[in-house]
Amino acid sequence: MAKLLLYLTLATSLIPLFSVAFSPENPTDRRVLVLVDDFAIKSSHSLYFGSLTSRGFQLEFKLADDPNIGLQRYGQYLYDALVLFCPSVERFGGSIDVASIVDFVDSGHDLIVAADSNASDLIREVATECGVDFDEDPAAMVIDHINYAVSNFDGDHTLIASDDFIKADVILGSKKIEAPVLFQGIGHSLNPANSLVLKVLSASSSAYSANPKSKLSNPPSLTGSAISLVSVVQARNNARILITGSLSMFSNRSGVQKAGSSIKHEKSGNEQFLTEISKWVFHERGHLKAVNVRHHKVGESDEPAIYRINDDLEYSVEIYEWSGTSWEPYVSDDVQVQFYMMSPYVLKTLSTDQKGHYSAEFKVPDVYGVFQFKVEYQRLGYTSLSLSKQIPVRPYRHNEYERFLPAAYPYYGSAFSMMAGFFIFTIVHLYSK
Amino acid sequence: MARSTGKDAQALFHSLRSAYAATPTTLKIIDLYVGFAVFTALIQVVYMAIVGSFPFNSFLSGVLSCVGTAVLAVCLRIQVNKDNKEFKDLPPERAFADFVLCNLVLHLVIMNFLG
Fold it and tell me: In a 10 Å sphere around its CB, with 0-12 CB exposed, 13-18 middle and 19+ buried, how is residue A3 labelled?
């Protein structure tokens, strides 16, 4: 009986290993933990969650202060991505706190954070750790008296219709988003020195961030297109974070009409915008991998351990992009390889055969030492590729120099004439009286 | 004044010529050999000045062969000259043997460095 129990526990503990999860071979996240303030969000945001589950994600909904939640157990992460739809949470339950969320992102997992007009300090702190600063005034919302959404009741212009998207097909998809996106919440600003954050949806130049219920006593600190409504961060370990100040942006919406324009859209751009950007955040698009780095002398096929100066060599690499279901060849004309020793001696653009194979031929420079083949590829919205392979380069051997140069014929002639002269002189000297 | 210095120079030149005519033929042959070596060296230097010093090792090798030959020939002339008190007891065959051996080493080095 005890043995049966033992075998049973062993068998059940092995089951998690068989589940399909986040791995380098399949980079799309699968298991997503969604933390909410109350479960009514499940129905008010059902369209967004439905689009996620239809693409194969396993969502797990928990209350933000549920004492049983945890991101990892026994050192292994239970989820591949985290969605924080709990703007008013004061303290997370279980073992989650700001430090564990930061560790979660540092280990390469993705994060979506949605704040709202009642955002707590905890959510603001999470956003600051990610590089985004929400407006410090807790009662401020983004107001725009020119680009607000027309609605049936006389609003205070906090529901704005924005179409100031970033121009990046890899983040927002190749199909243009026709209808503006509805937004109602707080705005944030980005540090211009931070090169990892991007403004995906920015407010128009007539927007400002202030308390809608009170009169303005001093000019608002955040104005114009410095206000970002939706931002993304791609960390150096390729973890992706989406931060926005409006939870209601994700909710089920109907049509929109921008004030000042006569076009009345049946459907707002929210659904298309959020679907496309979620695809990017969860690594269904824009995720590159580089495999099969090879280099060899032109004409040979095996990889030498050392090159000589002034050798002709060929370098090749294969780059693939994850399409959500499979690895497709990545086609681009701006991947470059460097032959680097303290500074690049050779910088060459790799040519592609359109099937993901990139190659370039160049001549080893006239300098010997230990070089590296370096490919540093960082493009907006794509994961960064940083490949480096070390290879030594030796100078000429004693018998590899050029011989019988036409320019040196006079010197050869003089050396031989000296030898001939010496020979003739010895004869004359010996046999003259 | 200029005329007398001109006459002195001419007189000097004439006395040099007549003194030189009195040297033994052997030494004159060695002098000719040295002149040939120096002349070849000069040709190479002029060539390098025109064309540039690309195979510098070849240039050095060529010039050194000429200069080395000239130096060894001058040493032979010193040792063989009967008027030279210092080498009175040195048999001229010994001097010649030294000359031949040194030239062999010189040409070995030149061939190695010629590239």
Answer: exposed
Note down the domain range covering A299. Answer: 287-394
Residue B20 domain flag: no
* Chain A 350-409, residues with CB within 8 Å of chain B CB atoms: 401, 403, 405, 407-408
A412 shares its domain with A303: no
Let me know whether A360 and A377 are in one domain.
yes
Same domain membership, residue A242 and residue A93: yes
Strands (E), A226-270: 228-234, 240-244, 256-257, 264-265
Coil/strand/helix, residue A103? helix
Name residues 22-41 of chain A within 8 A of B (Cβ): none
Tell me the whole-structure pTM to 2 decimals: 0.74
* Two structure tokens written together for A43: 């129905």
Q: Is residue B88 part of a domain?
A: yes
Same domain for A388 and A252: no
In a domain, B12, yes or no: no
Quick one: angle between helices B92-113 and B56-80, nearest 10?
180
- Residue A230 CA to residue A211 CA, distance in Å, equals 20
Which of A407, A414, A415 lies closest to B54 in CB terms? A407
pLDDT in tens, A339-349: 999 999 999 99
> SS3 of A303, please?
coil
Classify A309 as helix, strand or coil.
Answer: coil
Give residue-wise pLDDT tens across range B31-58. Answer: 999 999 999 999 999 999 999 888 888 9
CB-closest option in B47, B65, B103 to A415: B65
Contacts B107 to A, Cβ<8 Å:
415, 418-419, 422
Which of A401, A410, A432 is opposite residue B26, by nearest beta carbon? A432
CATH label of the domain that carries residue A380: 2.60.40.1930
Return the CA Rg of chain A.
Answer: 32
Query: A261 and A149 in contact (C-beta within 8 Å)?
Result: no
Number of domains in chain A: 3
Transcribe B34-66 into DSSP letters.
HHHHHHHHHHHHHHHHHH--SSHHHHHHHHHHH
Are A189 and A272 found together in one domain?
yes
B10 Cα to chain A: minimum distance (Å): 33
CA A404 to CA A419: how far, in whole Å?
Answer: 18
pLDDT, tens digit, for every residue of A139-186?
Answer: 888 888 888 887 766 677 888 888 888 888 888 888 888 888 888 889
Instruction: Report how many domains make up chain B.
Output: 1
